[in-house]
Amino acid sequence: MDLSIKSGDGMLNIRVGAIIKDKNGYCFHYDKQRRFYALIGGRVKYYESSDAAIKREIKEELGIECNNIKFVSTIQNFFEYAGTSYHEISFIYEFTLETSLEDLDIPSDPKVDYVSVKLPDIDSINLLPEKVKDIILETVDVQPLFIHHDKGK
Length: 153
Hints:
Layout: E1 4-7, E2 10-21, E3 26-31, E4 36-38, E5 40-43, H1 50-62, E6 70-81, E7 84-96, E8 112-117, E9 127-128, H2 130-136, E10 145-149
């Protein structure tokens, strides 16, 4: 069972995401409908550690085993989606792919594309949560915890 819990008028999500670097840049999934980029990852399951969850998510999404992950930070993200307020806690890891994303046999998905974005282009993409962009571009010192309130831009 995913750690996504309805609480009153809102939802609490416990997630993991990976800053994945390949030979061409940084790997993300791109939501075709809502037009945003996000870290590859997903929800933590009940009684699953965050490091086990990110390994599972990378295996599910990219079809590869990854044992050389490194914890980077935690982001608390507050946002509204479809009339529901979300409190999301994301454990962020990093991982280097020895090849390129294009070399992987990733099944086609009607909702999501898996893409590699070159470092100079990251500043211009709609990457959520936004704090991930700061971490990748090293515009902030990486700290164990970031808190982000979406002000409804």
